[in-house]
Amino acid sequence: MATVTDATFAEEVLAAELPVLVKFTASWCPPCRMIAPVLAEIAQEEGHRLKVVSLDVDENPSTTNAYGVLSMPTLMLFRAGEPVRSLVGARSKRRLLEELGEAL
């Protein structure tokens, strides 16, 4: 899973051709660590139709504040530069794919 920063967010996420799932995360967040392998699997299996990236909220406050992210992990799906779905908290791969399904 790729990592994005305040400096690369516009290019990597907003200008991406594919939908992009952004995990707003923090090193101190246990649920963030729990969902990491789930997102890694999704990135590998769905890479043809979905880009998955991670953004550390402590190191990238501008992007975090711009999208009003308050809880970790927040998963935000972007399409054509706009956030179309936001989910908070860890979940199973099956549940996450179901919740993202209609937005993809």
**Count of DSSP E strands?**
5
Provide the gyration radius in Å: 12 Å
The tally of helices reads: 4
Please, what is the average pLDDT?
96
Question: Distance between termini?
Answer: 18 Å
Strand order of the biggest β-sheet:
1-3-2-4-5
Class of secondary structure makeup? alpha/beta
Strand count, sense and barrel status of the largest sheet are: 5 strands, mixed
Q: In terms of per-residue confidence, which ranges show pLDDT below 50 for 5 or more consecutive residues? A: none
Give the SSE order as H and E letters: EHEHEHEEH
Helicity level, as a percent range?
25-40%
Classify the beta-strand content into a percent band.
25-35%
Instruction: Give the overall shape.
Output: globular
Family: Belongs to the thioredoxin family.
Domain Thioredoxin: 1-104
Keywords: Disulfide bond, Electron transport, Redox-active center, Transport
Protein name: Thioredoxin
Structure write-up:
The chain has 104 residues and is an alpha/beta fold. It contains 4 helices and 5 strands. It has helices at residues 9-14, 30-45, 61-66, 93-101, and strands at residues 2-3, 20-25, 51-56, 74-79, 82-88. The longest helix is centred in the middle third of the chain and has 16 residues, at 30-45. The protein is globular and about 30 Å long. The two termini are 18 Å apart. This is Thioredoxin.
Condensed summary:
By secondary structure, the chain is α/β, with parallel strands linked by helices. 36% of the residues lie in helices and 26% in strands. The longest helix has 16 residues.
